[in-house]
Cytidine deaminase
Amino acid sequence: MTSDEDLMAKAVAALPLAYCRYSKFPVAAALLCKDGTVFTGVNVENASYGGTICAERSAYVAAVSQGKREFLTIAIATELEAPAAPCGICRQFMNEFGNIKVILGSSKNCKTLVTTIKELLPHSFGPTDLSNHATELAYN
């Protein structure tokens, strides 16, 4: 089984692959699937800023495109001195696939912060909200 430290090491190792020519802020993620497979992702910026994809979403998209749907942990690394949390859209995106462990860390070997999707995005809107809505519509 992949340890939290191994997962963070995979995220840190992916940092140089980030394409961040505008922000100069590399971010990398390593996503552990329930079957033990690990997918990495990096931020990929675009001159049309809206076309940018964050590392977290990059890792999830890689996993989902290979048929993975069940995840255990994601490690997210930057080069900052202190751990940085994912942006709002990434929190919402990750929420789609369940409440998993989130490890925030750095290539600077700072202390990691361990949290969960639900702690990062309290009172979230997700798949069960839509299924509850469909059930309510069916009875009205």
About this structure: Strands lie at 28-33, 38-42, 71-78, 101-106, 113-116. The chain has five helices and five strands. The radius of gyration is 16 Å. The CA atoms of residues 18 and 24 lie 9 Å apart.
